[in-house]
Amino acid sequence: MSEIITADRRMRELIQLAKTVAQSKATVLIQGESGTGKELMASLVHENSTRAGRPFVAINCAAIPENLLESELFGYERGAFTGAVTSKAGKFEFANGGTILLDEISEMDIRLQAKLLRVIQEGEVDRIGGRRPVPVDVRIVATTNRNLGECVKEGSFREDLFYRLNVVNLTIPPLRERLGDVTLLSNHFMQAYSGRNGKQLAGFSTEALAMLESHAWPGNVRELENAIERAVITAKGSQVTAQDIAVERRQTDLLGAAAPARQDLGWAPGRTLDDIERSVIIEALQYHQGNRTHTARALGISIRTLRNKLADYRKIGIHL
Ligand SMILES: Nc1ncnc2c1ncn2[C@@H]1O[C@H](COP(=O)(O)OP(=O)(O)OP(=O)(O)O)[C@@H](O)[C@H]1O
Ligand SMILES: [Mg+2]
């Protein structure tokens, strides 16, 4: 299992909580944006439980069509449907004594949700076409990058199942809310990929680091990992430079070239208070993914003031 690298206080608390609850059989729901490390957290729960020596079986509920998902999860008896020439155990049976990871649980069909609820309540699975239920002892960990509570409100997710899954909730913060981890993870991935590619790199240039820190990372740690892997491969010198780092510019990203590096937030000769204020506003907007209400609140100004300032910036060609 790879280690969760972090220096963030909230992350450290989450890891601590995960290790503590790992000891119980409690169902764990891991929420977080895509690429934040949900799968990593799920395996941490398994590895720290008494089930560590037993199977850890993962299945992605979004990747498999509904009828196939049912037979994958619950298994089937011979003759249960056309093509069922032999009987087959499902993932729950394979995971017996261990942990099952139900990835992207929000995508599970409502009918299968009822079957899953039964497994949780009764501790037994019904194979498709089976005559009697098969008892299983499985710890369930589910992940989702959607807000499952919202799915309940929308009617696409069963409320009773939600409560059964959400016994312990581990919500992983997005990378943009733990910017301190960007440098740490960048160095970690740089070392890992240098080794793998037979390269010897002595870190990042200041400009490269500033660029990494000012990116919004909508794809979170996975995006960062891919960016560093690419940078390590393309790096020609002894350091990774800004030119080596190709991050996709998205809407959440800032202004391209005008994006401020973090050190630009302070005064330097030639910078006016307006320049500094503008950098701070840009930085705050980026942090809040362009959400003006949140940005205004965070800066302690009214939304109206923020709008006026943004209108002023537009006049000088800065569109945010
Ligand atoms: N804190 C971390 N330390 C080291 N590696 C990490 C960390 N967080 C994530 N990773 C790495 O980033 C990649 C994505 O992590 P993971 O697959 O666990 O994310 P996820 O939340 O399950 O993503 P998705 O929603 O797309 O399924 C993996 O290669 C994982 O090893
Ligand atoms: Mg995942």
Structure description:
This protein is of the alpha/beta class and 320 residues long. Helices cover 44% and strands 10% of the residues. The chain has helices at residues 9-22, 38-47, 66-74, 91-94, 110-122, 148-154, 159-165, 180-196, 206-214, 220-234, 273-287, 292-299, 303-315, and strands spanning 28-31, 56-60, 75-76, 88-89, 99-103, 124-125, 134-135, 139-144, 168-171. Strand 6 (124-125) and strand 7 (134-135) form a beta hairpin. Residues 249-261 have low confidence and may be disordered. Residues 2, 4-6, 32, 34-40, 145, 185, 221-222, 225 line the site of adenosine-5'-triphosphate.
Topology:
Blueprint (H helix, E strand, L loop, with lengths): L8 H14 L5 E4 L6 H10 L8 E5 L5 H9 E2 L11 E2 L1 H4 L4 E5 L6 H13 L1 E2 L8 E2 L3 E6 L3 H7 L4 H7 L2 E4 L8 H17 L9 H9 L5 H15 L38 H15 L4 H8 L3 H13 L5
Parallel strand pairs: 1-8, 1-9, 2-5, 5-8
Antiparallel strand pairs: 3-4, 6-7
Helix pairs in contact: 1-2, 8-10, 11-12, 12-13
Adenosine-5'-triphosphate binds next to helix 2 and helix 10.
Mean pLDDT across all residues, rounded?
89
Shape type: elongated
The distinct ligands, each listed once, are: adenosine-5'-triphosphate, magnesium ion
The CATH superfamily name of the largest domain is P-loop containing nucleotide triphosphate hydrolases
Amount of helix: 40-55%
**Number of discrete helical segments:** 13
Q: What structural category do the secondary elements indicate? A: alpha/beta
**Largest sheet, spatial ordering of strands:** 2-5-8-1-9
